[in-house]
Amino acid sequence: MSRWTGRTLLALVLPAALLLAACGDAANSASPDDGGTAPDADVTGAWGDTANPKAPSLEFNPGGRVSGTDGCNRLMGHWSIEGTRVTLQDMASTMMLCHDVDEWLSAGTAADVDGDTLRIYNQAGTEIGVLARPRSGA
């Protein structure tokens, strides 16, 4: 009878152990060294000089919305990220006529997070400009 009890115990414990092992945090277990993918870069927050309305800047909301200015027109849309590549989606802008303003940021369709630098690319994949993450306390 103790042999049957041992099998019963094994039949109950083994599936429970497998179930708990399957509940591990796969997102934190992947690393570039073991063939996994690195976590997405943190793009949320401000990029550029948000205090100066005549300077290009973007603000990435954690909910996937992006807004900013090219130094003249207001920009708004959605964003997503995979690794360090940010994709700008459904971008729209106001149509103000401003003289002596380089409106390069309004042509951005993608960006790469490179530390505290955001490299902006146009539809052709050409880098068209960069925005710096403001320093803390600045």
TrEMBL record:
Pfam families: META. Residues 1-26 form the signal peptide. The keyword Signal applies. Residues 51-128 form the DUF306 domain. Residues 29-66 are annotated as: Disordered. It comes from Arthrobacter zhangbolii. InterPro entries: DUF306_Meta_HslJ (IPR005184), HslJ-like_sf (IPR038670), Hsp_HslJ-like (IPR053147). Keywords: Signal. This is META domain-containing protein.
